[in-house]
Structure prediction request, 198 residues.
Amino acid sequence: MTNILILGAHGQIARVATDLFLKHTDARLTLYLRNARRLKLSGHADRVRVVEGDVLDTKTLEAAMAGQDVVYANLAGQLEQQARCIVKVMEKTGLKRLIFISSMGIYDEIPGERHGSILEPYCKAASVIEASRLDYTILRPAWLNNRDEIEYGTTRKGELFKNCSEVVSRKSVADLVVKLAMTSGLETRSSLGVHKTA
Ligand SMILES: NC(=O)c1ccc[n+]([C@@H]2O[C@H](COP(=O)([O-])OP(=O)(O)OC[C@H]3O[C@@H](n4cnc5c(N)ncnc54)[C@H](OP(=O)(O)O)[C@@H]3O)[C@@H](O)[C@H]2O)c1
Prediction:
């Protein structure tokens, strides 16, 4: 059975992914979040553990990483510092597999557009992860919505982002997270743009 640590588990994509993991896989989940009282779980108590913590708190993070197979980071804010903490603790504890949600635009892969200062933390976090020895997959979604649909395609680092003016659903990104987490070796050491398909 796969053990998955979800960092930022109250995040919007993370909550959709949690539902998909519980409905469609037999994975055991550790939900790591600040202010755990907000979390509403329905059923599957035997497969879910909740840890209240900040990702920048390396002691709590290290304890939560014990016994995990996959780390899925769904964070915002101080992304560079968060990436540094995650990489450091994963390398220390011997964990390899990281799925990290970033954003489209970090490599200036949107035709005719250069990234602004808002994306700087996302760019720096990606550099930290790419310089590590981890089996990472960075996901770079387009603008997001909460539609109940799974309609997406991916592009690799070095390719132009497709359909960048279209909005992709959080459920699509969550679907890809579940596939990556449950399929050994899938898209490791890669960075995927995630766009809405027509
Ligand atoms: N909006 C878009 O269209 C779009 C497009 C592409 C990419 N993205 C990016 O994709 C990422 C995921 O999207 P989302 O919609 O799931 O984001 P979200 O709902 O904002 O979730 C981010 C989560 O990160 C958590 N977090 C931040 N700092 C933390 C820390 N130090 N320790 C623990 N948790 C921390 C937040 O926790 P709290 O709830 O405790 O604050 C929040 O729950 C975000 O970075 C977002 O900016 C967004």
About this structure: The radius of gyration is 16 Å. The longest helix spans residues 79-93.
